[in-house]
Design goal:
The protein is an alpha+beta fold. The protein has helices at about 45-60, 60-70, 80-110, 165-180, 195-205, 215-220, 225-235, and strands at about 10, 15-20, 30, 35, 45, 115-125, 135-140, 145-155, 185-190, 210-215.
Length: about 240
């Protein structure tokens, strides 16, 4: 039998704990609506940790997450707590998985490369368009297999960038190529867009200036589309 006077309800974000006492044996019990993760004092309720990490992995902003949880009637941890969960649990776990996949991709690329020589396509992706980007991710893809074998993340606050976002792609391209050569890759050719800053930096690097440079077709045809269109229109009219 449960002593109704002894019942204590405790809300811990999305979890609910109930403490109560047995009237017969006088022993105190506790029931939790969720299981816990971790050990000792670092234990946390499962959903309280998984909510922010799921938002982080899927790219869901915290305001959208809070709106969704409000509609569903799910209480959430404080924003600081959720950011700590991402920092101390989510990010390290994602890094470990990424490093394992990256290593597998590199082993595969080397195994299938003709004469152990690879052709890499490289490009940078910014977090916002224009000249005001804060972050950039430069990826290197083995063109024969379509596997990403290397990637570098940069911030506009990094040394050498000095707040000028246009420098991030050239610096990242240089860094990822040096990284791959450092782990045993022989790069015969690099395929990039028409970024003159990338070309200049790689030409001036004695470790990388031997790599043949080519342009990808999309960036080659982009400035020619208007000319082609005018020619095709004039041809139809004539």
């Amino acid at each position: 039998m449960i002593d109704p006077i002894s019942i204590e309800w405790i809300q811990i974000a999305s979890a609910l704990s109930v403490k109560f006492q047995c009237t017969e044996c006088k022993v105190h019990f506790r029931w939790d609506s969720q299981s816990k993760k971790g050990t000792g004092k670092s234990q946390v309720f499962q959903l309280n940790q998984e909510l922010p990490i799921a938002a982080f992995v899927t790219g869901t902003p915290f305001p959208r997450l809070l709106e969704c949880c409000d509609v569903l009637g799910i209480a959430t941890p404080k924003e600081r707590t959720m950011r700590d969960a991402i920092r101390f649990y989510g990010s390290p776990a994602i890094d470990r998985v990424y490093e394992e996949w990256e290593n597998d991709a590199r082993v595969t690329s080397k195994a299938f490369a003709p004469a152990e020589v690879v052709v890499l396509a490289l490009d940078g992706q910014y977090d916002s368009p224009g000249w005001c980007a804060s972050n950039c991710k430069v990826s290197a893809i083995d063109t024969s297999l379509g596997l990403i074998v290397g990637a570098v993340s940069l911030s506009s606050k990094d040394p050498g960038i000095d707040g000028k976002s246009v420098r991030m792609e050239s610096r990242g391209t240089e860094a990822v190529l040096e990284q791959l050569i450092g782990v045993g890759f022989t790069v015969r050719m690099r395929v990039t867009d028409s970024n003159s800053m990338v070309d200049k930096r790689l030409r001036e690097n004695p470790k990388l200036n031997h790599i043949e440079a080519q342009r990808d077709f999309w960036h080659v045809q982009k400035p020619l589309r208007k000319k082609w269109w005018k020619v095709s229109i004039s041809g139809c009219i004539n």
